[in-house]
Amino acid sequence: MVRDGYFYAVPLIAAAILLGWLTYPAWAVIPALLAVFFLWFFRDPERDIPADAGAVVSPGDGKVTDVSPVTLCGQRQTRISIFLNVFNVHVNRSPIAGVIREVRYQHGKYLNAMNQASADENEQNIVTVQGEGDAEGQTVVFKQIAGLLARRIVFHPKVGDRLARGQRVGLIKFGSRVDVLLDASAKISVKIGDHVKGGSTILALIPQNAALTTVGGSSSPSSVRTH
């Protein structure tokens, strides 16, 4: 359980008790049901993290809505987009093991996360991870993208922190989208329409010598052109 669930649920439980005590028991049903919903929404199940060399795992639960080539810093990349509806687990995880090289928060719009324009125009957190261990030579960018309902993006690690593959890094509240940008040489393991689980579903396998090109030691993941 993510602790945010208690922040929402405890006041609602207190309200249900007070309403049931001071008025009629029936009035307590609505806040009680909302409390149960928040406790369920902020669930945080354990996941089996794949040990496959070069594996890029899904940063979140949801449905794959796009697998397409893009151009990033003049280099061909592949973008995998995953839509998280309100019923999915919203805890986000690192797609690879490595060191965080950049974290950039971009203020923006709140378009429907199913809209392709949301990848560039919506409020989002953009994270660049340089691979280590069996992920050495890889650099992967992943985005936490807000949507119509999602207005709160949480990301805990900082630049320089080391992450394990599948490690919890934050969450997006109430429906959202996550994008993963990786080298075009990656062997993609999913297709549009697939349902994936954060930390346990392999999105792609990247050759050990593949790397996402950076400019001046810092990537520019917002300047992405689709083809």
Quick take:
This protein has 227 residues and is of the alpha+beta class. 16% of the residues lie in helices and 35% in strands.
**Structural class from helices and strands?**
alpha+beta
In helices, the fraction of residues equals 10-25%
The protein's oligomeric status is single chain
The separation of the N and C termini measures 40 Å
Largest sheet: 9 strands, antiparallel
Percent of sequence in beta strands:
35-45%
Could you explain how this protein is built, in words?
The chain is built from three helices and 15 strands. The protein has 227 residues and is of the alpha+beta class. Strands 2, 3, 5, 6, 7, 9, 11, 13 and 15 form a nine-stranded antiparallel beta sheet that branches. A three-stranded antiparallel beta sheet has the order 1-14-12, with no helix packed on it. Strand 2 and strand 3 form a beta hairpin. The longest helix is centred in the first third of the chain and has 19 residues. It is elongated, with a radius of gyration of 19 Å. It starts with a helix and ends with a strand. The C terminus is likely disordered.
Secondary structure layout:
Blueprint: H1 4-22, H2 29-41, E1 55-57, E2 62-72, E3 75-84, E4 91-93, E5 98-106, H3 118-121, E6 124-131, E7 139-145, E8 153-155, E9 162-163, E10 168-172, E11 176-183, E12 187-188, E13 195-196, E14 202-205, E15 224-226
Antiparallel strand pairs: 1-14, 2-3, 2-13, 2-15, 3-11, 4-10, 5-6, 5-9, 6-7, 7-11, 8-10, 12-14
Helix pairs in contact: 1-2
